Amino acid sequence: MTTVAPPPSRKQILSLFRSFLRSSRQFSDYNIREYTKRRTIDAFHHNKTLTNPSSVAAAFADGNHQLQVAKRQALVYHMYSPEVKSIMEIKC
User: Fold this and answer.
1) Which candidate, 64, 75, 60, places its Cα nearest to that of 20?
2) Who has the most CB within 10 Å: 5, 24, 67, 75?
């Protein structure tokens, strides 16, 4: 018999959203940073309409998994960051 995790609270969902935005700031490359931020906002808007508690819990679990992936990727990008800055980051 499988146990279904209870749906996350609004506070937990907002905390996950803020964690995604914080992890996106860890990328040194402008393009990756903006892509991560844009993808986060799009995914949360897409899942905003979920009403079934099991689908909400599944989306939340997937979000937590994706957050761990993003944190690992930020660490890797930090270790091997390019020397040349993006044109968007160069100040005149």
Assistant:
1) 64
2) 24
